[in-house]
Design goal:
430 residues; alpha/beta; six-stranded mixed β-sheet; 9 helices
């Protein structure tokens, strides 16, 4: 089976959000940056006559010597700019590359070249005494501070270097946090497309869903589900996923989910619907090896029968009332290929008798591919059936059943799951 998964919103219950993951990652990175400040500082001086620009000895706040490297031009600076360099002291009088005359704003050109060469490093601009306007312009362009060349002393310069390094780290952390928030907002918009609010007004069925992102998951995966009721009273539901995890797969998942809803509301069903979805995938995917699995069910208006189509996806679980009746998997002998694998493929529609009272559970591979113990065998579909049967005998139903199933799968695995887990439950009570 391929690797499926889904995501959550509204009626579904998501257990962890991308904004939380992003904030944790950014906090850990900030702690690493702060710890790095405990090491001795290294400064790169870019000055065509470095001998007279600095006092002989600089020390940090702990009294340790600040290491100073010197470069006479940007070519030398590029060679000396190793990862341990914390700050660059740049003489604005230094000619920019390809510009022999340092006048006419060329000092800012050399600053821009240094900022491009070392975007992650703190930069202090050195300018002539009394030329505060030029120094302020250097800070506006991107330097962390400016100093007058002929007014330097060891204490002033040491303090300025420490300040510039701290300010650069703070600016970088703030930028990363802002980028993380933007990504989280984009992820939420994509999630709304992947996991929409079901359109089941007028239906006698109850809907519940649960989603849990996997440990190794990026902020987004190409997993999706949906449920709608058409004017004739038929309830259509599906769950699926695009192979891979990331914004491209998520965007493709949104397209397939929206296409499924539009085609379903237009009256398509079964093989005709899946064939059209395959055409959408083939036109929209970025690589010919990308495919998607899908499980669709269409439940008759009387709620007693359903049509089932499987495209490389595990079969749903049918639950009947009464502890004596064990849940059973719906037939999967007519399971067709995943979408995008075989041009001109067909997906047979299997008629299933549901009865007067039942629950139907659609799920992704993440629910059955976890281990039964750390390093042990996978849970598999048989293990999932036994687990659900036991939880039903404990009186769990609806959202509580889904929550318990996802929690136990994670517990059995002994760690966070490598795959996302999504489960959809439809209930019909007589």
């Amino acid at each position: 089976m391929p690797v499926p998964v889904p995501r959550q919103r509204a009626v579904p219950a998501a257990e962890c959000g991308p904004a939380q993951v992003s904030a944790v990652a950014l906090t850990e990175e900030a702690h690493r940056d702060t710890a790095a400040l405990g090491a001795a500082l290294t400064v790169l001086l870019v000055e065509d006559d470095p001998s007279g620009a600095l006092v002989p000895e600089l020390r940090d706040s702990a009294g340790r010597p600040i290491r100073v490297r010197t470069a006479r031009n940007l070519t030398e600076a590029g060679r000396l700019l190793t990862p341990d360099v914390n700050c660059i002291l740049l003489d604005l009088a230094l000619p920019a590359a390809g510009c022999a005359d340092p006048g006419d704003g060329a000092e800012l050109a050399v600053l821009r070249q240094v900022l491009e060469l070392a975007p992650r490093h703190a930069v202090i601009a050195l300018t002539a005494s009394g030329d505060a306007e030029r120094g302020a312009e250097a800070v506006r362009v991107g330097a962390q501070d400016y100093l007058f060349r002929d007014e330097l002393d060891s204490r002033l310069l040491s303090r300025a270097i420490r300040y510039a390094v701290e300010r650069k780290r703070s600016d970088t952390a703030e930028r990363r946090l802002a980028e993380g928030r933007l990504r989280a907002q984009e992820n939420r918009r994509l999630e709304r497309g992947l996991l929409p609010t079901p359109l089941l007004e007028g239906a006698s069925l109850r809907f519940a869903a649960r989603y849990r992102p996997g440990r190794s998951r990026a902020l987004l995966g190409g997993d999706f589900y949906d449920a709608v009721r058409t004017p004739d009273g038929t309830v259509h539901a599906m769950i699926g996923d695009v192979c891979g995890h990331g914004p491209d797969e998520a965007a493709l998942g949104v397209e397939l989910r929206i296409a499924w809803r539009a085609l379903t509301l237009a009256g398509l069903c079964g093989d005709e619907l899946l064939g059209t979805l395959q055409e959408v995938l083939e036109h929209e995917r970025s690589d010919e090896e990308i495919f998607a699995t899908l499980c669709t069910v269409d439940i008759a208006p009387d709620g007693r029968r359903a049509g089932l189509c499987l495209a490389g996806h595990p079969a749903p679980l049918l639950i009947r009332p009464g502890a004596a009746q064990a849940p059973r998997l719906l037939p999967f002998d007519n399971n067709g290929p995943a979408l995008g694998l075989l041009p001109g493929a067909r997906w047979p529609r299997t008629q299933v008798e549901l009865g007067a009272e039942w629950s139907l559970m659609l799920y992704t591979d993440g629910l059955i591919e976890g281990r039964t113990s750390p390093g042990g065998p996978r849970l598999g579909q048989d293990g999932m059936v036994d687990m659900i049967h036991r939880q039903l005998s404990e009186g769990l139903r609806g959202e509580e059943l889904l929550r318990a199933a996802v929690s136990e799968v994670r517990h059995l695995n002994g760690d966070e799951l490598t795959d996302d887990v999504a489960v959809v439950l439809l209930d019909r009570v007589a």
